[in-house]
Amino acid sequence: MVSQLSGTAYRSAVKSSLAAIPLFILMAEFMNSGGMARDVFDAACKWVGRLPGGQSIATVLAVEGFKNALLWSIRVSTMSF
Question: Most Cβ neighbours (<10 Å): which of 13, 23, 42, 62?
Fold first, then answer.
């Protein structure tokens, strides 16, 4: 019964777009351990930190920076040379 449940869970994860979530979390861990997460957030704070709600705006900008880094790496890895 356990093997059937694990097989069903695996098949449903492979078929859906939810399979990307663990890889996104792994990439976030690499960014955090490498210091990129702190650097991106610090840069965003310096840029908009003085505005009202600056920390919230900086958080959104940092997330956008992470998203762009992810999309850039996907784009580069799928290019044919």
Answer: 62
CA dihedral sign of residues 57, 59, 64, 65: positive
Three-state SS for 3-53 is: HHHHHHHHHHHHHCHHHHHHHHHHHHHHHHHHCHHHHHHHHHHHHHCCCCC
Q: pLDDT tens digits, the chain, 81 residues: what are they? A: 556 656 666 666 666 566 667 777 887 788 788 888 888 888 888 888 888 988 888 888 888 877 887 777 777 767 665
**Residue whose tokens read 């960014």:** 31
Would you call 21 exposed, middle or buried from its count of C-beta atoms within 10 A (0-12, 13-18, 19+)? exposed
Alpha-carbon distance of 12 to 58, in angstroms, equals: 36
